[in-house]
Design goal:
The complex is a heterodimer of chains A (303) and B (375).
Chain A: H1 7-23, H2 26-34, H3 43-50, H4 57-69, H5 76-82, E1 87-90, E2 97-98, E3 105-110, E4 113-124, E5 131-136, H6 146-178, E6 180-181, E7 184-185, H7 190-219, H8 224-250, H9 261-273, H10 278-290
Parallel strand pairs in A: 1-3
Antiparallel strand pairs in A: 2-5, 3-4, 4-5, 6-7
Helix pairs in contact in A: 1-4, 4-6, 4-7, 5-6, 6-7, 6-8, 6-9, 7-8, 8-9, 8-10
Chain B: H1 7-23, H2 34-49, H3 68-80, H4 89-102, H5 105-116, E1 122-125, E2 141-145, E3 150-157, E4 168-174, E5 185-191, E6 197-202, E7 211-222, E8 226-227, H6 233-245, H7 252-268, H8 275-300, H9 309-331, H10 340-350, H11 358-369
Parallel strand pairs in B: 1-4
Antiparallel strand pairs in B: 2-3, 3-7, 4-5, 5-8, 6-7
Helix pairs in contact in B: 1-3, 3-7, 4-5, 4-6, 6-9, 7-8, 7-9, 8-9, 9-10, 9-11
The chains are: A alpha+beta (303), B alpha+beta (375).
C-alpha cells in the first residue's frame, strides 16, 4: 500500500503548472469572458501537445487539478472523459454541452448510449467563459462505454474543483496578508484565520479522495462508482465552501468584477453543479451503502 | 501509486483479525472508572503477552516492528472487532514517542517495556487550573536539590485523564522562573506514589471519575527522571503534542467502525429520514482514512509530521461529534437514555477541547500551514 505519486508524476504536474501560468494567466481567463469563443486562443493546442489526453488516470489527475487552478476555459474534462481531443460532451446529469460551437464533435447521452449530437440553443452560464449549448442527441451511436465516460467526466470535474479551491485559498491568503486595517494585516485577525483554516480543512480531505478515485478508476471497476462519487461530492463541497470563505475574507473588493476572484467562484459553482452535484453523488453512495432492499434487522442500539 | 495491500500486509491483517476475534472481551465497564480500569489492565496484559500491545515498537520493548501501514491495519481490525479502549494510550501514544526521541538508553530500557506491559500506567500532567490552552503559563515549579542529585517539585496539575488510576505522571514544571515563559521548563517523569504527591479523582461530564487533580508538595525527582535537557521541556513537550493531534491518537479505524455501526443503526430505523446525513458521515470517515494513508506514505518516505497534524485533529474531532449526533437523532426520544451512543456523544464533545482546542488548531493551520501573520 503506497498512496503517493512518483517523482515523474510530480514533475509533470509542475510542468503543467508552469505552462498554464504562462499560457493561461488570469487576464486570459478574463478575456475569454467576452471574446468570440470563450476560450484562450492557442491554449488547446498546447494542452494537446503536452500529452494530457494520452495519460492514464493516475498520471493525469494532478494535471487536471492544475487546469482547475488556472481556471482554464477549455473543454478539458470533456475531452479527457471521451479520450479524444476534438469533442465535447453532454449527459443526463449535465445536459448542456460546453463549447459545442467550437469543437468538431458533440457527444450526447441517449438512454445508456453516447451518440453524435447536433447543436441547439445557447444557454447562458453565470460563468461568462462557459459557452453552453442545448444539444439534440439524434445521431449515430459511438462505440464507447457511456458509463466509463461519465465516471471520467465526474472525476475530472472533481480534480478541477480541488484546483479551483486551492487557487481561491491561495488568492485569499495572499490578499489578507497584505490588506491592512486597524493598523495590521487583516489576516492577523482570528476570525479571518478561522475562515481560511476551515477552507484548508475541507480541501485537505477532499484531495485524497480525488487521487484515490483516479487509481480506483484505473484498477478496480467494482469500486469505481462509490470512489468517484466520494471524490466529486467532497470536491464540490470544498470548492463551494472555499468560494464563500474567499469572498468573505476579501470583503468588498472580492465582490467586484474588476477583481479576479469572481471568475474562479463562478467556475466552481458551475462544476459543483455539473456531473452530479454533491447531493446526487451522496445519493448514489447511499444506494450501495444503505442497501434499501435489505431486510430490516432488529434494532441495533449498540455503539 | 498502489492502493492494494501486499500479501504480507494481508497476512498481517488476517493474523490480527483472528487473534482479536478470539480474544477481545466484550461489555467491559468503562476504563475511566476504578473497577473498569482494572479489567482493562487485564486486557492490556493479554495484548502485551501476544505482542499486540505496541505493534510498531522494537521487539526488545514488546513490539513486533510493524510498519506504519501495518499499524493502521491493526487499528482497523481492533475497532472492527469492538476492542476496548486502551487505558495505556496516554503512555503509548503521547509519552512513548517522546521517550524514543529524547530518552537516554537507560530511560528507554526501563520505561518502555513496563509501559507496554501495563505495569506502569502513565498520565499526562500538562494543564493547571490557570494554564490550559496557554501551556506556557504553567506555574508549578521544580527547585534544584544538588545535594540529593535532583529536583523538588511543587504545584498542581489538573484535568489529568485517568490520573486517579495511574502509577506515573509525565509533566512540565518550571525550572527557571527568570527565563522567558517558553524556556525554563523541564519535562519530568514522576511516580505517583512518591512522597508529597496527592491525587484526587473527579468526575467528567460523561459521568466517569476520569479526571484527576494531582498536587505536588516538594516531591523529589532524581536527575535520571528528567526527559531531555533541563530547561528544554517546551521543545520536548511539543514533540508529544504533534503526536497527540495527529496520526497516533486517532487512527481511521476508530471512525470507520463507528460509521459502520451508524449505518446499521440507520438501517434498523423505520423512518429513514436521515439517510443523507448518515451517508455524509460515512463519506467523511472514508475521506479521513484516505488522507491518513496519504500522510503515512509521506512519513514512510521521510517527511516529518508537522503543523498539518492540526488539520487531522480538527477533522476527526468534528467528524466524531457528527457521527454521534446523527445517531442520537436516529434514536429519537430514546436518545436521552443512558447507553453507548449517548456515552459516545458525551466523549466526542471533549474532542474539540483536548489535545489542543480546535480554536488553537485553527490558529496553527492559519499561521503555520497557510502562513498568515501572527495575531
Amino acid at each position: 500500500m503506497r498512496f503517493a505519486f512518483d517523482a515523474e508524476q510530480l514533475e509533470f504536474r509542475d510542468a503543467a503548472r508552469n505552462l498554464l501560468e504562462k499560457e493561461c494567466p488570469p487576464s486570459a481567463v478574463r478575456a475569454a469572458w467576452t471574446n468570440e469563443t470563450g476560450r484562450v486562443p492557442g491554449l488547446w493546442g498546447r494542452l494537446v501537445e503536452m500529452g494530457l489526453f494520452e495519460l492514464d488516470e493516475v498520471d493525469s489527475i494532478l494535471v487536471l487539478e492544475e487546469t482547475g487552478r488556472a481556471c482554464a476555459p477549455e473543454p478539458v474534462l470533456e475531452a479527457w472523459a471521451l479520450q479524444r481531443t476534438d469533442a465535447t460532451l453532454a449527459t443526463d446529469t449535465t445536459p448542456s454541452a460546453l463549447y459545442a460551437d467550437s469543437v468538431d464533435l458533440i457527444v450526447a447521452q441517449f438512454d445508456t448510449d453516447l451518440v453524435r449530437a447536433s447543436i441547439g440553443e445557447r444557454r447562458p452560464s453565470v460563468d461568462g467563459s462557459r459557452r453552453l449549448f442545448e444539444v439534440h442527441a439524434e445521431g449515430d451511436r459511438l462505440d464507447v462505454d457511456a458509463a466509463v465516460v461519465t465516471e471520467r467526466a465526474a472525476l475530472a470535474a472533481a480534480a478541477q474543483l480541488v484546483g479551483l479551491a486551492q487557487q481561491m485559498l491561495d488568492m485569499s491568503v495572499s490578499y489578507v496578508g497584505q490588506r491592512e486595517q486597524f493598523g495590521k494585516p487583516v489576516g492577523s485577525f482570528q476570525a479571518v484565520k478561522h475562515h481560511l483554516a476551515d477552507a484548508a480543512l475541507r480541501i485537505e480531505f477532499a484531495r485524497p479522495c480525488v487521487h484515490r478515485a483516479a487509481w480506483v478508476l484505473a484498477n478496480d471497476p467494482a469500486e469505481t462508482a462509490v470512489a468517484v462519487s466520494l471524490a466529486k461530492a467532497q470536491a464540490s463541497e470544498a470548492a463551494l465552501l472555499t468560494a464563500r470563505k474567499a469572498l468573505q475574507v476579501h470583503g468588498a473588493i472580492g465582490y467586484t468584477v474588476e477583481y479576479d476572484l469572481h471568475m474562479w467562484m463562478k467556475r466552481a459553482w458551475a462544476l459543483a453543479a455539473a456531473w452530479g452535484d454533491a447531493a446526487w453523488h451522496r445519493n448514489r453512495i447511499k444506494d450501495t451503502l444503505l442497501n434499501r432492499n435489505a431486510v430490516l434487522k432488529g434494532t441495533n442500539r449498540n455503539a | 501509486m498502489d492502493l492494494t495491500f501486499t500479501e504480507s500486509e494481508d497476512a498481517f491483517r488476517t493474523e490480527a483479525r483472528q487473534w482479536l476475534e478470539t480474544n477481545v472481551p466484550h461489555d467491559l465497564p468503562s476504563g475511566d472508572t476504578r473497577e473498569g480500569f482494572a479489567l482493562h489492565l487485564d486486557w492490556e496484559r493479554k495484548l502485551f503477552d501476544d505482542r499486540w500491545a505496541v505493534v510498531s515498537w522494537p521487539r526488545e520493548y514488546g513490539g513486533r516492528e510493524a510498519s506504519l501501514i501495518e499499524w493502521l491495519i491493526f487499528e482497523e481490525e481492533y475497532y472492527r472487532a469492538g476492542g476496548p479502549q486502551r487505558v495505556t494510550q496516554n503512555g503509548i501514544f503521547l509519552l512513548a514517542p517522546t521517550v524514543f526521541e529524547f530518552g537516554t538508553q537507560a530511560q528507554k530500557d526501563h520505561i518502555l517495556p513496563r509501559m507496554a506491559a501495563a505495569n506502569d500506567l502513565w498520565c499526562q500532567g500538562w494543564s493547571e487550573p490557570n494554564a490550559g490552552s496557554d501551556l506556557a503559563g504553567i506555574k508549578s515549579v521544580a527547585r534544584r536539590d544538588d545535594g540529593a542529585g535532583g529536583w523538588r517539585l511543587t504545584g498542581q496539575k489538573t484535568w489529568t485523564t485517568r490520573g486517579a488510576f495511574c502509577t506515573h505522571l509525565f509533566g512540565l514544571f518550571r525550572t527557571d522562573p527568570e527565563a522567558e515563559r517558553h524556556r525554563g521548563m523541564t519535562y519530568f517523569l514522576v511516580p505517583l506514589d512518591a512522597d508529597g504527591v496527592t491525587v484526587r479523582g473527579f468526575g467528567r461530564l460523561d459521568g466517569d471519575e476520569g479526571f484527576a487533580e494531582v498536587f505536588f508538595e516538594d516531591v523529589f525527582v532524581p536527575d535520571s527522571d528528567v526527559l531531555g535537557e533541563v530547561n528544554k521541556g517546551w521543545n520536548v513537550a511539543m514533540a508529544t503534542t504533534g503526536s497527540e493531534r495527529g496520526l497516533t491518537l486517532r487512527s481511521p479505524g476508530r471512525f470507520m467502525a463507528t460509521a459502520a455501526r451508524l449505518v446499521e443503526l440507520c438501517q434498523s430505523e423505520p423512518e429513514r429520514s436521515l439517510d443523507d446525513e448518515v451517508v455524509a458521515c460515512w463519506m467523511d470517515a472514508e475521506a479521513y482514512r484516505w488522507q491518513t494513508y496519504a500522510t503515512v506514505a509521506r512519513l514512510m518516505e521521510g517527511a516529518k509530521a508537522g503543523a498539518e497534524s492540526s488539520l487531522t485533529k480538527l477533522f476527526w474531532s468534528e467528524l466524531d461529534i457528527r457521527l454521534y449526533e446523527t445517531a442520537l437523532r436516529l434514536l429519537g426520544p430514546d436518545a436521552e437514555l443512558e447507553g453507548p451512543w449517548m456515552k459516545g456523544y458525551e466523549f466526542a464533545l471533549a474532542g474539540p477541547i483536548y489535545a489542543g482546542t480546535n480554536e488553537i488548531q485553527r490558529n496553527v493551520v492559519a499561521e503555520r500551514v497557510l502562513g498568515l501573520p501572527r495575531t
